[in-house]
Amino acid sequence: MKVQEQVSQAFRARYGEPPRWWVAAPGRVNLIGEHTDYNDGFVLPMAIDRAVWIALRPRADRLVHLHSLDFDQSKAFSLDDFRNEGHSWAEYVKGVAWALGEAGLTLGGWDGVVAGDVPVGSGLSSSAAIELAAARAFATVSNLFWDPVRMARLCQKAENRWVGVNCGIMDQLISAAGEAGHALLIDCRSLATTAVPVPAGVRFLVLDSAAPRSLAASAYNQRRAECEAAVHKLQAAYPDITALRDVSPAMLEAAADRLAPNELQRARHIVSENERVLASTEALRSGDMARLGSYMVASHASLRDDYQVSSRELDTLVDLALATPGVLGGRLTGAGFGGCAIALVLPAAAEGAAETIIARYRAATGLPGSAFVTSASQGARQVAGPA
Ligand code: ADP
Ligand code: MG
Q: How many folded domains does the chain comprise?
């Protein structure tokens, strides 16, 4: 059953009437541009055809009643008095209420049933999906103007400050502003977005390593600190720079002796990755999929060797993908240390490649692993009734 029907049925069962509205917000894969977002750089993600859905109706009071089908749990809070109660799925909704309220927006209460098919904790940003779905729910109930960039920023604030995860803007912005059939080039400094059509002649495979991401949070914070340290030292040579975004490969090599070896490696990844994102955008636009594939492979090598955020499992997945007929490129996607890889594949080969790669991955690692073919989808939206 589709997620929209699941939340509809559960809503009827709880409240004895159909929902008034449905909202949905997608997860994402990043085609290229990893760890560049918090360096003011470029990313090229697309929203996937998996989303968090909420079926809802307005309430006359200022309570928010939530039921999660995936966590089989009900939660309620008052918009006039709510606290952070630690780690629960409902904190993502509360965090959004908090951020919208801090921005001076007046919110109304609602009853909602929540469910999704974005794999949770696999690096496809189910967290941004639930945040943007919640924002869309509040916007619908409270008659708020839907400005995707503003909503993405407020949801990022909710994740940073309410949930306590130090993420960049990419996940929320692509979930807010994704367009069907398009990847989105995002300039993470200006937040300008450019939709880039995905040619009909390719598919993307999401390859889930099913490996734990236990190191991810501490390594992520460490990489951010290393990038900041590199900028600080490079400013002695280039006073005008404020982020690695401002540094070209030639500038970096000319000042290489100012950096510690690890800082130089991290900076090399960011500086080269920004160039690959822009080149990949051109390759996508001109339909040169072999070229896009080669940039993805180079991105993976840079993440593995210079940024050092890959893992044995992700390397195995990418190697197996590249050895499979019809696959044009592959790389880890998301922050790394487990989670997912992505492969660029010819349409006729897509389903077969997914099966082959996962069978070999299971044999090589003993981990479950899974794969699905995905397509570029629309960002956070309000939806008419089920078809
Ligand atoms: P991801 O890589 O998927 O973003 P995170 O750990 O950042 O992983 O976010 C996952 C959390 O988001 C879940 O533990 C849960 O609290 C919340 N979440 C994601 N999807 C759902 C859902 N369908 N229903 C309720 N909460 C969800
Ligand atoms: Mg997340």
A: 2
